[in-house]
Write a structure and sequence with these properties.
binds N,N,N-trimethyl-histidine; globular; single chain; 39% helix; alpha/beta; 312 residues
C-alpha cells in the first residue's frame, strides 16, 4: 500500500465505523457534480457568499486598512467565481495589489488564470499550484501585507480539533497585521439546511456515490453503485450535517488492485462528510483559540453565511 489515497481508503473501509474522507469527492467528475450542487437553488451557501463578496467589496477592502501594494492569497481558489467580484472592484478602482490564487489542481488554476487575464487584463496575477503551506511560507517572505482568503465554508468539513489545527497553521504562516477572510456557513432554520444537502434532485447523492466510482476506477474495485444509497442528517443542536453512504445489501466488495475484500452488512453506513454550521459565538471562540482577533463579520442579507475578517 503505497500512496496516501489507497491508505486513507483502506483505513476508512476497514474501520469499525466505516468512513471515507470528503476531500476525495473532488476528482474531475466530482468537481463537475459539485458545480451542479452550487447551481441548485436549494444550495444557498454559494449565493449567500456571492452576495457578500459582490455587495460588500468596498467595505471589506476598507476594513483591511492595508498600505499599498498588498497581496490577496486565495487558498483553494477553484474556479474563482465568487472572488471575481472582489477582484473586479479592486481593478476598477486602480488599487495596487497582487492576486495569488493557490489550488492543488493545475487544471483549475489554468482555467482561472485564462479567464481572469481575459476579463481583467489589468490584474496582476501570480497563480500557484501545490500545497497551501509550502506556498504560504514563501509568501511570508513578502514585505507587503497579505489578505488570506479561505472561502466557501470549507472549514465546515473539519472536525473541531482539525479546524483548530488548520487555523493554527494559517496563523503560524502569517505576518503580524496580515488578515484572514474565512467563510462560515451559519446555523439557521433546519429545513433550509436539510434541503440544501438532502436535495430532491439526487445531485448530492450522486456526489457521494461518485466516491465509490472513483474507488472502482483507482483501485480496480467492484462496487455496484446501485447497491448503495445516500442519507444525510442535520442536527440543529450541534450544527453538524453528516452524510453517509448506505449499503442496501449484505455484500462484499473486492479492491483488486491491492487484493483486499471489504464486507458490508445490510444497512451498514460509510460516513463521508461533515458540513458543520456555526453560531457567531462559536466563530469567535475558534478565532480566539487560534490567537486571531475578529474584526468584522460580513453577512448576507438573510444571515445564512458569514465571511469573517480576522487579524493576526
Ligand atoms: C464545499 C465543503 C463547502 O460542505 O457544503 C456540498 C461540500 N457537500 N454539498 C459543503 C458539499 C454536499 C460543501 N463545501
Amino acid at each position: 500500500m503505497t500512496d496516501t489515497f489507497t491508505k486513507d481508503i483502506v483505513d476508512g473501509l476497514t474501520a469499525k465505523d466505516k468512513h471515507l474522507p470528503s476531500k476525495y469527492f473532488y476528482d474531475d467528475n466530482g468537481s463537475r457534480i459539485f458545480q451542479e450542487i452550487m447551481n441548485m437553488p436549494e444550495y444557498y451557501p454559494t449565493n449567500a457568499e456571492f452576495e457578500i463578496l459582490s455587495m460588500q467589496s468596498k467595505q471589506i477592502i476598507e476594513a483591511l486598512k492595508f498600505s499599498r501594494p498588498f497581496n490577496i492569497v486565495e487558498l483553494g481558489a477553484g474556479d474563482g467565481f465568487k472572488t471575481f467580484k472582489l477582484l473586479e472592484y479592486l481593478v476598477n478602482n486602480e488599487v495596487d495589489f497582487h492576486y495569488v490564487p493557490i489550488d492543488i489542481s493545475q487544471e483549475a488554476i489554468d482555467i482561472l488564470t485564462r479567464r481572469l487575464k481575459e476579463k481583467l487584463p489589468a490584474l496582476k496575477i501570480d497563480p500557484k499550484v501545490g500545497d497551501y503551506f509550502e506556498i504560504l511560507k514563501d509568501n511570508r517572505q513578502s514585505d507587503y501585507p497579505s489578505l488570506l482568503l479561505f472561502l466557501g465554508g470549507n472549514i465546515g468539513n473539519y472536525l473541531e480539533h482539525k479546524a483548530k489545527e488548520l487555523l493554527a497553521l494559517f496563523h503560524k504562516n502569517m505576518k503580524r497585521g496580515d488578515k484572514l477572510l474565512i467563510g462560515f456557513d451559519l446555523k439557521k432554520n433546519p429545513i433550509i439546511i436539510h434541503n440544501a444537502y438532502y436535495d430532491k434532485h439526487g445531485i448530492t447523492k450522486r456526489f457521494n456515490l461518485n466516491l465509490l466510482v472513483r474507488i472502482n476506477r483507482t483501485l480496480d474495485a467492484d462496487f455496484k453503485i446501485d447497491d448503495f444509497d445516500f442519507y444525510c442528517h442535520y442536527s440543529p443542536i450541534t450544527g453538524d450535517v453528516k452524510s453517509y453512504i448506505v449499503s442496501l445489501r449484505k455484500q462484499t466488495v473486492h479492491l483488486k488492485a491491492i487484493d483486499k475484500y471489504i464486507h458490508f452488512d445490510y444497512d451498514e453506513l460509510i460516513w463521508t462528510e461533515l458540513s458543520k454550521k456555526y453560531a457567531l459565538e462559536e466563530i469567535n471562540d475558534l478565532a480566539e483559540h487560534a490567537k486571531f482577533k475578529v474584526e468584522h463579520n460580513f453577512l448576507d442579507c438573510k444571515h445564512y453565511f458569514t465571511d469573517s475578517l480576522w487579524q493576526k
